[in-house]
């Protein structure tokens, strides 16, 4: 299967509905804070809201690195393995492919939120995703229960290579336990110390997957 469509199918899970998939961790950072500002929040470990303010036009070519790993069921365990890795993906072509995928569940609306980045070129503006969930029921491929790590990095190639934004996401497919209060996670823009620690882990993950 074409790597672009593998990525499209994976992203098809991120919609406005969900059942037993939880965010264990979500981290995102802008490397060009004078030009891109990101903030985000997690509630009940299942609902993600993400804001991105872009202050300038980004010319040249935009590429993505995407890395997905199956994690050990126990945090810190050694049973981890790579599901797929895609480097130098064309970001604009990915947006176009996602824009053309619709969901019958939602009156054939595109899986790409109209309030977020939907096409190129990327222009200045405020973009957001509100109350997004990870819905594995919409995934055409079978995903096993367990823990997963997704690393995404957006890069601009224009005279030189510039990192723009990254995201690090850990999700877990779990059985819902009735009667147990939901775990609540809240986070906003990371501190400098958090950024350095998460970036170090992100680089390690990519290098280890070579």
From TrEMBL:
Q: Known InterPro entries for this protein?
A: DUF1091 (IPR010512)
| Keyword Ribosomal protein on entry | no
Mark out the compositionally biased spans (Polar residues). Answer: 188-200
Q: Where are the transmembrane segments?
A: none
Q: Which UniProt keywords apply?
A: Signal
Residue ranges of the region described as Disordered: 180-210
Protein name, entry field: CG4597
Instruction: Report the SMART domains cross-referenced here.
Output: DM8
Pfam families per the UniProt record, alphabetical: DUF1091
What is the organism of origin for this protein?
Drosophila busckii
Signal peptide (from-to): 1-18
